[in-house]
Amino acid sequence: MRLRFFGGLEAEADDAPVEIRGRGQEALLFRLALDAGTTVAYRSLAEDVWPDDLPDDPRASLQSLASRLRRVVPAGTLEAVPGGYRLAIAREDVDIALFQDLVARARHAEDPAAAVADARAALALWRGEPWTPGDGFDWVVRDLLEDRAHAERIAGDGAAAGAGHQSPALAATAVTTPAVAAAATVPASLTPLIGRTRELELIDSQLRAERLVTLIGPGGAGKTTLAFETARRTPGSIVVELAPAAPGEVWAAVAGAVGRSIRVGELVSTSARDRVAEALAGRSVLVVLDNCEHVSAEAAGVALDLLGSAPGSRILATSREPLGLAGEAFVDLGPLPGDDARELFTRRVRAARGTPPGGDEAAAVERIVSRLDGLPLALELAAAKSRTLTIAEIDRGLDDRFALLATGPRALEARHQTLRALIDWSWETLTDAERTALRAAAVFPDGIDARDVPTVAAAFEVDGESFETLVDKSLLRRAEGRLRMLETVREYGIDRLRTEGREAEFRAREARAMSELAARQDALLRGPRVREGLAWFDADEENLSAALRTCAEQPGLEDVGIRLVRACFWTWIMRERFTELQSGIGRFGEAAAALDSEPAVVVRAIALLGLAFAPDGGEPAPAPVPSAASDDGGERDAATRGTRTPAEDAAARRGEPTPSGIARLEREAPAVVAAAAVHSSELSAAVPPLLRGLLEDARQHVPGAPWTRSFTIRDDGLEDAPAWTHAFLSMIRSALAQNTGDTRTLGAESDRALSMFLELGDVWGTAFASQMRSEWLQLAGRLEEALAVADASTEGLAGLTSTTDLVQQRSQSIGLLLRLGRIEEARERLTGSRELARSFESPRALAQTEMDAAMIEIAVGDGAEALRHLDTIDAQMLPAFPDQLTAWSQSRRAQALLLEGRADEAHDALRRAYPSAARSGDHPIVSDVAVSIAGWLAVTGRDAGARRALVAAARLRGGVDASDPFLRVMRARFENDALLPGATAGAEPNSDGVGELDSDGADELAVLAALLG
Is the dihedral of CA 538, 542, 548, 551 positive or negative? Predict the structure, then answer.
């Protein structure tokens, strides 16, 4: 295939024209033709094909264009290769590529006759103005026009050239033409530049605006490469390589570079500085000072002198730290972006072993690129190993990256031949304090919040300024308010600590610093700044995990571990991270028995609440949480099984208090209660009433009976407790009341908690109390108010709680909309829930959205569609569901089956739903199953049983749910009065409209079991 772009687009193959249709295909072909025979990265293609408006998915759009282009070009011409596409034709078959190659060869030819011949051959190709696909390719035209000017100058001088001498014009060009001088003094690139287009443009922009620009970045980022590329593109550039220069030798290095670049008359000055000044006098020139960091102060002085003595000069410096001069502009060079890094690694692997990485090696390549931080030099060193190692072996070898990358190409400078030498070069320039700061930063895997630097610095006995200096020296990077460290530098710091035998010491200091910082942020969580506090905990999650591991592994850090668990406790509760909570309590609960601090009191109290559900010697179970949303998929049961008796094991599986746990609570609770009075806080003040209430209820529990997790929280001894403690306890009372169908308490306590949290400005407390308030409003029949409050709760919880909890909260609003008959609004809410669940890839939340979808279809009477949604829930997930969700999903399945007239199958689903509901002790869930049982009884002609099931449902829930969508559809379809809200009239109503109920609902459970058969 041959392509011509001078004078218009022409394409031919096998002497026949090839028609390229559409701007997109033309642009893709043109961009690939510019680099014919080589890979062009996805990113470069997308930015040139769509210069003003990138599509949402550039790679998919490129794939579509390429697919269409392949249909018209010869087979095999357009190749998809790792990282991009390649036009598999020779450069001489593309007229503009051939033109550029001929001009380049003419400019560098030593034989004048050959230069003239090449220049004239190039000009012969210019049969008209170069064609481009339109916007975005102005740079191509500019390059071609520049090359044409060079070709015309060389060809015009050809008439004066003789066989035995060079023409005066060509001689002048060789001596004074900037382009030739630059080519002679800037080292040629051995490999093509990959990526860095944006950085090169920024360098060019900065040099046009400022006289001193420093290209700054970590070792191995490619600063020298970009500086040299800029010099090649800037006629007359002078490159000064300072890496070999010792202190006191910078002026000599500059003078030597100037002498090689500029031919002037004999200089009269004897000092290097003066010789440089005389040589640059009256000239406009770019001076590159490469590798300034080890002589930064001297290089800064030289730069200042050069700018002052040669007004036409500009300086581009490369360094791992700023020169510190007034007016200094910067271009910050970080790691390569992912696509460019993969392309670089792929090309170098192909060069080393002859073939690029295969598809089966893509995952390992991705890991290597990520683990090496996208640093070009590190990727080059790793790729060079592919000559003798497989990609998988290189990936595994990075566990000890400094040993793996201990040798490199001989052509590289010594400081670039190994990964360790690369960072050693920076290490040698650090002060003792800066070295301590570097090793300290290495034990903070999440980096360090810039606001926390003073605390961290104090923990390691250095000044905070040392960390800022590491930023200047490119060993730390400031991003989004944090000081971060490249993984390679972090591993270097850890390796240093291990070699010195100080890793344990530094990790202990990190744990102490994190315990202090976390305690400060915990104080923000129960007030208006909760989002600020949670953002800190999220950003420092790995730092906290590392600190907790250190405290668990190192003797003598138990107190630090206790303080860390206490500081993280409220975040774990809000985010429903019960696995972390259980692990923390399991590690430090016993150590907290000394009760000598507020953290110890809180941690020990949580441990005791958990021990009530575990035998002596067993791990504490999580404390009972009175919320259906607070499940953990059964993970905690598996973690708490020890050497239990069969009865105790069964009790633990049911979430009941065990006899041994209660006895232990009896023994140890009084000391915790007494210590809480001494070490008082808003959390520790809540400990006595919670422990007393739980113990009182556990004593009365009958083993084997369903346990509602309900207990009485009294106000005894709370006269001096903080207002937040009162609000928190009211919130817990309301949740317990909702769980047991105590409507009166739910109404009073939710109102009290909501009012107090609003006054205190506690965002999370307000949202949780609003959730309870909405439940009460629904039972009271005030559906519009309930929806408004539920929506406010959802808005308040956004970003504070788990994705699953947020989707479940949105489910409450969907249910209210269905009760109000606003079906389309419910579907819109469902769409939002699905997007939320998918964005966080939460299987539990996605399952919840399918159940919500089924709930909507049931509300409109479409049982078949409801079953389709229920069937999409992974069957393997159901055993991992908590009893509440299992019961709820099976209850919905029964309702859908009843709507489809499949009563026998509905009965089977109800027989699966009922045991789970009964085990849960969650009265609203049992009530929901009771409603489904009533529907089944009505369909099978047992109206009296249906009425009795609805009575049970009302008693368990604490009120008649007159707007239940399922019952509304069933009444309309079957015209059965047994399912009317008034069917509960014979239930001996009290002031709330339903009969009295024993605290655990055992009577109604027995009735439902009998009705179900």
Answer: negative
